[in-house]
Amino acid sequence: MSQRTYRVLLTQEPEGGFTVTVPALPGCVTYGESIDHALSMAKEAIELYVETLEAEGDPIPDDSRTLEYSLVLAS
Questions:
Q1: How confident is the model at residue 15 (pLDDT cuts 50, 70, 90)?
Q2: Are 32 and 20 in contact (CB under 8 A)?
Q3: Confidence band, pLDDT 50/70/90 cuts, at residue 2
Q4: Among 2, 10, 44, 54, which has the minimal tally of Cβ within 10 Å of its Cβ?
Q5: Please, which residues have CB within 8 angstroms of residue 39's CB and are 6 or more apart in sequence?
Q6: What predicted TM-score, i.e. pTM, was given to this entire model?
Q7: DSSP letter assigned to residue 24
Q8: How wide is the angle at C-alpha 50 spanned by C-alphas 36 and 1, nearest 5°?
Q9: In this structure, what is the dihedral angle of CA atoms 6, 11, 12, 13, given to the nearest 10 degrees?
Q10: Domain boundaries, given as residue ranges, for the chain
């Protein structure tokens, strides 16, 4: 079994909970009521997405070669 790395972005929603997106997998979006729940849902969504790509014989992208930085700028 190979190992893949995925970056997930959690956006806190005004009504509560977190929306999760996976940039390497377009359309892979899920939701969780807490950070832990959101990450659990993200893992499940990624696994299902990858299973679908494998079944269709499509390439499986990941973020293993992606570097990420956050810059904070004063305004």
A1: very high
A2: yes
A3: confident
A4: 2
A5: 8, 10, 20, 32
A6: 0.88
A7: T
A8: 90
A9: -130
A10: 9-53
Mean pLDDT, residues 45-63 taken together: 97
Q: How confident is the model at residue 23 (pLDDT cuts 50, 70, 90)?
A: very high
Give every CB contact of residue 18 below 8 A, 6+ residues apart in sequence.
10, 11, 12, 31, 32, 33, 34, 35, 38
For residue 21, give Cα distances in angstroms to 41, 57, 63, 74: 11, 23, 13, 27
What is the Cα–Cα distance from 20 to 26, expressed in whole angstroms?
Answer: 12
Residues contacting residue 42 through CB under 8 Å, at least 6 positions apart: 6, 8, 20, 22, 30, 32
